[in-house]
Design brief:
Layout lengths: L8 H12 L17 H13 L3 E5 L2 H11 L7 E5 L4 H9 L3 E5 L9 H7 L4 E7 L8 H11 L3 E4 L7 E2 L2 E2 L6 E5 L12 E5 L2 H10 L28 H29 L15 E2 L4 E4 L4 H13 L20 H11 L1 H8 L2 E4 L6 H15 L1
Parallel strand pairs: 2-3, 2-4, 4-5, 5-8
Antiparallel strand pairs: 1-9, 6-7, 6-10, 8-9, 11-12
């Protein structure tokens, strides 16, 4: 599941190195007192790893989302389409831009519903956000084509699938802007942190200034004399976060592989898969969650009992559903959005997500899979 499981000596040494190199915790300035710029290195390493032209580190995935919305021009009166199976931060970011969140359905596999999205596009649609939920990729390439057709920027919320990809690249690098989260429950972590990725220089330059109080960031001008070119905010990442993030990035491929091994153990017990959330063709998610869907009430209760007997919990479904389903967010989306979320609420109420944990042994997953298989017959 998350990078916190593999935090160890390397992260401790990376943190100590920040102090050994001068103890400068800012991403910028104090050049004469340091010989490293960890945030800039983390951004550069992320560009190389994910094959993106530009990256901007932020203090969280949420701040990266808001920055992405501002970069593509979202403002008061605009509409932004996003999905009903989501994390509340996505809708909060839209709301914080004084724009209107427009909620579209997910399909029976809990993926972004392209058909419903198309029905909601109008002259006020300023952006569309697809969210890859719980380690499984959504139909981002098809949505990118829709964005091109209607000239609407596509923002890819890849906070829950960092390191996942399909045959054509990493998730987070298909839309006009992609966003990652590095909080303590994500595939790699630096406690809190985020990253914005884009191949569009205009969006990158906006993000770089906006996240740093609107600075022009003129390279030949002293920072104290640098002018402001826009109203900005402070969404900067610290050097300690970045030093840890660099180490975690180097562990990401191994984390995904360990996830996949455990995920496949469970998956192999259900060859017909009538009640397992499926991956789209040519996808390789981050495999940090194994999800049962379309369950009856008695089935969900029995699965929860089996999980408890095996000392397993759940991940977001059902234990944190109110933070991942727009049915509970009337305070952000209004009555219309609330009503449109009822279908998703019903689907999620009959779903159970099992966390994939690296520190749980293969034998434990084999035992859990056998017990679940026995129940389903």
């Amino acid at each position: 599941m998350p990078g916190f499981e593999v935090i160890g000596r390397e992260e401790a040494e990376a943190t100590a190195s920040v102090f050994n190199e001068g103890g400068i915790l800012f991403a910028h300035g104090f050049d004469s007192l340091r010989n490293k710029f960890h945030v800039r290195e983390f951004e550069s390493n992320s560009c190389k790893y994910f094959s993106a032209n530009y990256s901007q580190a932020t203090q969280s995935g949420t701040s990266a989302l808001k920055t992405a919305l501002k970069a593509v021009g979202v403002g008061p009166g605009d509409e932004v389409i996003t999905q009903s199976f989501n994390f509340i931060a996505t809708v909060e970011a839209i709301h914080d831009c004084n724009a209107k969140p427009i909620i579209c359905d997910v399909d029976d596999n809990l993926d972004f519903c392209l058909k419903d999205c198309l029905s909601k596009i109008n002259k006020n649609t300023k952006a569309i956000i697809l969210v890859h939920m719980l380690g499984i990729g959504g139909p981002i390439e098809q949505l990118v084509e829709i964005g091109k057709k209607y000239n609407i920027p596509i923002i890819e919320d890849a906070c829950e699938i960092v390191g996942g990809k399909n045959n054509n690249g990493y998730y987070g690098c298909f839309g006009d802007i992609g966003v990652f989260s590095f909080d303590f429950g994500k595939n790699i972590t630096c406690g809190e942190g985020g990253m914005l990725l884009t191949n569009n220089r205009k969006y990158y330059e906006y993000a770089r200034s906006y996240t740093d109080h609107g600075h022009a960031l003129e390279p030949k001008v002293a920072r104290g004399n640098d002018k402001a070119i826009m109203p900005g905010f402070n969404y900067r990442m610290t050097e300690i976060q970045a030093a840890i993030g660099k180490v975690q990035l180097n562990k990401l491929e191994n984390i995904i592989n360990e996830h996949k091994t455990r995920y496949q153990i469970l998956n192999n017990f259900f060859p017909n898969k009538p009640y397992i959330r499926q991956e789209l063709n040519n996808c390789r998610g981050s495999y940090d969650t194994f999800i049962f869907i379309n369950l009856q009430d008695n089935q969900a209760n029995e699965i929860l009992k089996i999980l408890k007997l095996n000392n397993f919990g759940t991940k977001n479904l059902p234990d944190a559903m109110r933070w991942h389903c727009s049915y509970f967010w009337e305070h952000l989306i209004g009555e219309e959005g609330f009503k449109h979320s009822k279908k998703t609420y019903k689907i999620l109420s009959n779903a159970i997500a099992i966390p994939i944990l690296i520190k749980r042994s293969l034998k434990e997953y084999e035992k859990l899979g056998a017990d679940l298989k026995e129940y389903f017959g």
